[in-house]
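pinned: reference chain
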Amino acid sequence: MTAEPVYHADDGPAEILRVLPERWHEQFLSAYHSALDAAHEVWRFQHLRELLRVWRLHAAAVSNPDFARAEQAVREGRRDEFVSMDDAFPGWADRR
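pinned: its structure tokens
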């Protein structure tokens, strides 16, 4: 049996800022500081870890040069340029 690591080095705020395009820094830092302040309550610490994980994934996505093009295709409904969650994962909408 394997266990998932408790902490990933890539989830650190410095690494997230390094990867994250600068236009997202203020939003990330605001969310990070709020979660960090709240993490003083033991039951909220997990929220900080989850926030860092989500922002790491977000940073990876938005730092990809193709992201803006793909995001625009989604906004314009150009389905031929992307795969929807429903197409990729049948029944996705039912699980929400």
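why pinned: The chain has a mean pLDDT of 85. Residues 74 and 82 are 7 Å apart (CA to CA).
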